[in-house]
Write a sequence for this structure.
């Protein structure tokens, strides 16, 4: 959806780009930003209809949003995405990279093609977004990546996925130090089990109940729990930098 803003409106905008903005957690982050007065670019990899639906909901409520597509691991496509956001709104203040894929298998049975798929999106994609965000985010802004609590809990079948997310964590810490003097924070959020369609799919009630009781709070996270942490890092949490924040209710 396209809307034209006057110079004064553009000057006052706080702009966030959320990759994977149509997923369970990504969508919650988009809505949280919109509720807090941000203009939001909702990125999608394939489902334009879902992204446009989210944008329409925000606009109907008086917010400002656009949808934007592309493969996060394709530098040219993402450069074009960043260009569009900057041209439309005058700049970018926050980049949240929730885009990622998870394919589970014991290491001994892992299909190497699945490993390549995860590394393409989770590692190369994060590197591409990091590179562009580091060059484009305005002073006082934030870059927020996504890892997983399984880098600590080390559950069976998660070996390849955890390896990709451990790379994201390391990349995040290095980038925070490379941006010394830029007044841009770089952090990663590492959720625990969260009640999204992706997580719940294929699990029976007993399995979900057992997982829920793994935390002292005895429940799964909801996407809004994760969005709250991201919102804090993007706004008032300016003294948190170069960190991995485990948003898991005390699981590990």
């Amino acid at each position: 959806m396209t809307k034209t803003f006057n110079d004064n409106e553009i000057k006052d905008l706080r702009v966030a780009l959320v990759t994977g903005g149509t997923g369970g957690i990504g969508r919650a982050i988009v809505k949280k930003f919109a509720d807090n007065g941000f203009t939001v670019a909702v990125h999608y990899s394939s489902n334009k209809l879902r992204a446009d639906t989210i944008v329409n909901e925000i606009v109907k409520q008086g917010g400002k949003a656009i949808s934007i597509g592309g493969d996060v691991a394709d530098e040219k496509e993402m450069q074009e995405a960043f260009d569009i956001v900057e041209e439309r709104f005058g700049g970018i203040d926050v980049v949240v990279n929730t885009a990622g894929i998870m394919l589970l298998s014991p290491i001994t049975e892992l299909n190497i093609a699945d490993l390549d798929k995860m590394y393409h999106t989770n590692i190369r994609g994060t590197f591409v977004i990091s590179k562009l965000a580091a060059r484009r985010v305005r002073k006082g802004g934030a870059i927020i990546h996504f890892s997983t609590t399984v880098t600590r809990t080390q559950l069976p079948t998660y070996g390849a996925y955890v390896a990709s997310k451990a790379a994201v964590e390391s990349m995040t810490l290095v980038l925070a130090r490379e941006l010394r003097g830029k007044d841009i924070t770089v952090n990663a959020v590492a959720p625990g089990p969260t009640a999204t369609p992706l997580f719940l799919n294929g699990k029976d009630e007993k399995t979900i109940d057992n997982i829920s009781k793994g935390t002292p709070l005895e429940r799964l996270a909801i996407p809004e729990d994760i969005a709250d942490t991201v919102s804090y890092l993007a706004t008032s949490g300016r003294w948190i930098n170069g960190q991995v924040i485990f948003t898991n209710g005390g699981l590990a």
Remarks:
- Strands lie at 15-19, 39-44, 65-69, 92-97, 137-146, 185-191, 244-247.
